[in-house]
Amino acid sequence: MNVWIDGSTTETCYIFQGEEPVVSPIAVKVTNNVGEYHALLKAFLVAKLKDVEVLSVYSDSELLVKQLTFDERGEPYYKCNNARLHCLKVSALAWMRRFEEVSLTWIPREENPAGLVLDRRKGHAKSAERTRSTKSTIK
Question: pTM to 2 decimals?
């Protein structure tokens, strides 16, 4: 099964092939990279609840994909030097072992429907903020 993921500082989105996007908030503001890991972990949980055994994950986060994929020597393409990301990486690797097969593939932002969903939401939030700001200055 295919799933597209994206995370931001405030919310995550995942889209399983043939299904509607699922957007959920992150309780506290985090870094974008932490948000990406949160999106991945949510997708893993939902995939398991759907009894998926073979999962293809598509993300526009090069960092996430390269920290969780390995070269021919078994070394990750990117090292993880951040303690918080390292904890999330360990959780992601544990989840990956629960599946028969998991692939992670980097895709450009414009090809990531989950990213486009969050971009549209961010655009609406900015428009709403500008409207609130304008209304507060007009009396």
Answer: 0.87
